[in-house]
Amino acid sequence: MACKNSRKSISLLIFLVLITTAFGGRIKDIANVEGNRVNYLIGYSLVVGLKGTGDGKATYFTVKSLANMLQKMGIVVDPNRITVRNVAAVMVTAKVPPFAKAGMRFDVEVASIGDARSIEGGSLLLTPLRGPDGQVYALAQGQVIVSGYEARGKGSRRVKNVPTVGRIPNGAVLERDIPVDLNVAKFRITLDYPDFSTAKAIQDVINDHFKKDLAKALDSATVEVTIPENISPVDFIAEVENLEVKSFQPAKVVVDGRSGTVLLGGNVRIGPVSVAVGSLVVKVTERTEVSQPPPFSPGETKEVPRTTVEVKEEERRIVPLSGTTVQELVSSLNSIGATPREIIAVLQAIKQAGALRAKLEVL
Question: What CATH number has the domain bearing residue 191?
Fold first, then answer.
């Protein structure tokens, strides 16, 4: 009995219940001021000083890059004669915080793009970091810190985490300001999750707080706000983004079949529907028997196959659901011992029947 209950509990999905009805929060928690966002930079370079774990000769772009770098320093080397294993070609990426100014330092990520086994202990050479416009905004350099490792011998090899990806804390310095102009008469608020009700709520809260028609919802994701003449843009934006507003999100059910997780909103409702979950088990067994004739008879000894077919269907009762809440839905599915695959199928069937009053998203 204990084994059966244990098997049953393991087979069930993990349910996370999230209350997604209208709830209060600051504007800055559910939206962003246009322009107040991170900026991404990227660059290509070499990591040197590796302990024989760098790119091999087959990674030709690493050899070519090393030869070109040496040539710029006045050393001419034939790329076909380079056989070092302490160099790796890498891509360097970074996220620059909003309103960053020249001289500000930030972290960079370093990832191998060749056949290097590890970049642990390596040093990143001076790397220009470019923006989407192709302009150089920052320079990166420094010692690479790797959270993983690789150890190998003649007969074994052990790897932990990803030794070909590392990080350089404060490894980049911004060389030019990222332009953001706040000397404007208007600015826009962009919602993280577009919703007409939430956009209108932001519009009403701002207008009620300042007793003026300053905000106007343009669509489900954008609210345009006019800055009054008697206040600075920074002070006004700081006051606006800390206003409390109700956020309205649609009812939603998210199913991740790989990890066995179902995320259901607290405002999900189920219309009148009946659910029956069952399983059919067919077992076919074959064995060979020997047919022995009576003594002194003309018959022959032969092997005779015997096939047994067993069909077993587990009985599951039909569970009616009508106007149920999330908690009642979870309890009903658990009570009939539904497996993860069955629960996903039930949710999809309820949605197809029009009884699931929520959006169903399967990952």
Answer: 3.90.76.10
pLDDT tens, 171-209? 999 998 877 777 788 889 999 888 898 899 999 999 999
H-assigned helices in the chain: 2-11, 27-30, 60-72, 196-210, 233-241, 326-335, 340-352
* Cα gap 118→114, rounded to integer Å: 10
Which pTM value belongs to this model? 0.61
CA distances, 7 to each of 259, 319, 343, 345 (Å): 17, 22, 16, 20
> What digits encode the pLDDT tens for the residues 15-59?
444 444 455 688 888 888 887 888 899 999 999 999 888 998 888
In degrees rounded to 5, what are phi and psi of residue 16? -115, 125
- Regarding whether 168 and 49 lie in a shared domain, the answer is yes
Q: What is the spatial distance between Cα 301 and Cα 218, in angstroms, rounded to a whole number?
A: 90
Query: Do residues 205 and 235 both lie within one domain?
Result: yes
Q: Nearest to residue 171, comparing CAs of 116, 117, 125, 102?
A: 125
3-state helix, strand, coil in the chain (%, to 5): 20, 40, 40
